């Protein structure tokens, strides 16, 4: 694991560039199309960075960003195969989180996000996959990681992603008869629920 | 209970006629909660029982869902901080910390060293408070009323310390992006030191009163065993994972704050009174983590220096760089993860909260079948769930 040079309160824990690079290489060897995204801003902000970024956002151009690197699967049909490689070959024993992101109401895609943790290698990895909003499904990974069970149910009720092959696709946090997907950016808040006014 | 019986008979190898009577009973469905003291809030568990043996358990959550993640993408970064207090309200400081670390990662700031030490002291104090409530209320669940009062007496002292440093007793918002709200008032660190002495002297009493009591051992040992494989597969973290014998602690294995400079032990369940991974082991881990936390606080108190407590450039309106960050920290209940997606504006695109209780609770659906009905309360209690966190 590559740690930032300076002594920090959070640095060494969460910088997992190396893990993502290794996983990308393994995917390539297995014939799974994947794109490695790595942040291009320095770990620590420089003077006046936010102003510069705001100006740049206005002008357009190459996007500068900070944070975790992640892998993006090109084909969602290969998700199960990719997860199997991560679990069996690369030692990611735990799925820490399965969730979705609706980045913008205008976007055609949601992101399916998988956060994995390897106890053996002390490494973290984020795997993402695009999910078209008009054909919103992913393969369930419950057969590989039981932990995904409730996470997928949650992500499914909040984003409307259908996890194919999920053993128990009920709502987990919302009432069973809830209409709409609350974490979509175009979600409209209901005026009432069973006669209870929401305004 | 409807009963049907079926009679069959056959001769065995010696020619003796044998009768076999198959008594089938209908499973009974039993609602535990949502208003049940042992569910620690408003959790409904639908239990299915065949006689006294459970054949299934299904959790129904959501009674305390407050749309934390939706709020996260509607208000700006600092405004969201008070909402973090409210998911695991027994360890609100740790929630503040997890969220702040994630925002700081996108901001690219480092917290001054004194701020880091203060954060560590506060986080560990809150861990002690949380474990005291966990163990105390677990005593209530299995039938010991007295230890709860003593646990709350100790917790009260921690809350007094928190009140002195930030003015609040339950929802603090003290740890914030950039550092902490303000420096410790005069005499506060000495107060923490006194508390450490007090906790050290009283810990053994808690141990003797509850953990070594025969009734407690019989209610918890060999009950609700979660194997190491199960715990890993179901995404358990924190004392649930360590209680099952897995040596994993984010404070040591992916250190943040000043944990890599401290000397402490990671407590792992060893099957002290029965099987590794039973309810006793989880409580055992929590009890000894209190000792380790006191040890860590002492080391922090010895090492803390004067200085700034908050990064001077981090104000109230934050504009983190575009990007995304996942930060998981070791909360009293396990890994609290914040996954934040920023587009560079003052409001996050997505704030995802990975709550440890939510994942730790999921495993009980797997372990309840086959247990005794009377053990259900003991098993649910040992997961130490906070409903504010499972439902968010």
In the CATH scheme, the class of chain A would be: Alpha Beta
Q: Strand portion of chain B, in percent? A: 15-25%
Spatial shape of chain A: globular
Q: N- to C-terminal separation of chain A?
A: 50 Å
CATH class of chain B: Mainly Alpha
Shape of chain B: globular
Overall pLDDT of chain A, averaged?
Answer: 82
Q: In CATH terms, what is the fold-level topology of chain A?
A: Beta Polymerase, domain 2
Helix and strand sequence of chain A: HHEHEEHEEEEHEEE
Q: If you consult CATH, what is the topology of chain B?
A: Cytochrome-c3 Hydrogenase, chain B
Q: What percent of the residues of chain B sit in helical stretches (DSSP H or I)?
A: 40-55%
Helix- and strand-based class of chain B? alpha+beta
Q: How many DSSP-defined strands of chain A?
A: 10
Give the low-confidence spans of chain B: 1-6
Rg from alpha-carbon coordinates of chain B: 24 Å
How is the main sheet of chain B built? 3 strands, antiparallel
Number of domains of chain A: 1
> In which order are the strands of the major sheet of chain A placed?
1-3-6-5-4
């Amino acid at each position: 694991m590559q740690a930032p040079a300076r002594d920090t309160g959070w640095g060494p824990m969460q910088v997992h560039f190396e893990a993502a690079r290794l996983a990308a290489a393994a995917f390539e060897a297995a014939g799974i199309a994947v794109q490695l995204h790595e942040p291009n801003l320095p770990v620590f902000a420089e003077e006046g960075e936010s102003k510069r970024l705001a100006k740049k956002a206005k002008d357009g151009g190459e996007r500068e960003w900070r944070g975790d690197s992640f892998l993006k699967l090109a084909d969602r049909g290969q998700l199960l195969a990719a997860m199997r490689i991560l679990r069996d070959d690369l030692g990611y024993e735990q799925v820490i989180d399965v969730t979705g992101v609706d980045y913008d109401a205008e976007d055609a895609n949601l992101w399916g996000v998988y956060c994995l943790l390897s106890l053996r290698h002390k490494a973290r990895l984020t795997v993402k996959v695009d999910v078209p909003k008009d054909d919103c499904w992913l393969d369930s990974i419950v057969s590989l990681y039981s932990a995904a069970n409730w996470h997928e149910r949650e992500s499914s009720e909040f984003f409307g992603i259908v996890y194919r092959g999920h053993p128990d696709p009920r709502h987990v946090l919302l009432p069973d008869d809830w209409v709409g997907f609350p974490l979509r950016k175009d979600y409209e808040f209901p005026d009432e629920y069973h006669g209870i006014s929401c305004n | 209970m409807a009963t049907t019986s079926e009679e069959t008979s056959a001769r065995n190898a010696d020619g003796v006629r044998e009768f076999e009577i198959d008594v089938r009973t209908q499973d009974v469905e039993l609602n535990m909660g949502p208003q049940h003291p042992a569910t620690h809030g408003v959790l409904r568990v639908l239990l299915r029982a065949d006689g006294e043996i459970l054949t299934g358990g299904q959790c129904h959550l959501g009674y305390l869902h407050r749309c934390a993640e939706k709020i996260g993408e509607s208000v700006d970064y600092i405004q969201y901080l008070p909402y973090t207090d409210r998911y695991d309200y027994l360890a609100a400081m740790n929630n503040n910390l997890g969220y702040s670390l994630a925002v700081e990662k996108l901001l690219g700031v480092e917290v001054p060293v004194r701020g880091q030490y203060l954060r560590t002291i506060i986080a560990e104090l809150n861990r002690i408070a949380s474990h005291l409530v966990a163990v105390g209320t677990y005593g209530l669940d299995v039938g010991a009323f007295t230890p709860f009062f003593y646990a709350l007496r100790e917790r009260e002292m921690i809350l007094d310390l928190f009140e002195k440093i930030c003015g609040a007793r339950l929802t603090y918002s003290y740890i914030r992006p950039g550092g902490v709200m303000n420096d410790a008032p005069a005499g506060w660190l000495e107060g923490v030191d006194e508390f450490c002495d007090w906790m050290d002297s009283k810990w053994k009493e808690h141990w003797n009163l509850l953990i070594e009591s025969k009734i407690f051992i019989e209610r918890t040992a060999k009950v609700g065993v979660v194997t190491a494989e199960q715990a890993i597969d179901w995404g358990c973290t924190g004392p649930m994972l360590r209680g099952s014998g897995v040596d994993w602690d984010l404070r040591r294995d992916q250190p943040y704050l000043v944990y890599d400079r401290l000397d402490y032990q990671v407590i792992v369940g060893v099957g002290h009174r029965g099987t590794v991974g039973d309810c006793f082991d989880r409580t055992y881990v929590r009890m000894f983590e209190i000792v380790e936390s006191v040890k860590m606080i002492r080391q922090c108190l010895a090492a803390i220096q004067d200085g700034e407590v908050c990064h001077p450039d981090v104000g109230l309106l934050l504009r983190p760089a575009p990007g995304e960050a996942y930060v998981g920290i070791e909360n009293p209940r396990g890994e609290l993860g914040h996954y934040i997606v920023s587009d560079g504006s003052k409001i996050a695109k997505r704030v995802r909260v990975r709550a440890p209780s939510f994942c730790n609770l999921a495993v009980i659906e797997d372990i309840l079948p086959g247990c005794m009905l009377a053990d259900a309360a003991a098993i649910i209690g040992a997961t130490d769930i906070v409903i504010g966190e499972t439902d968010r």
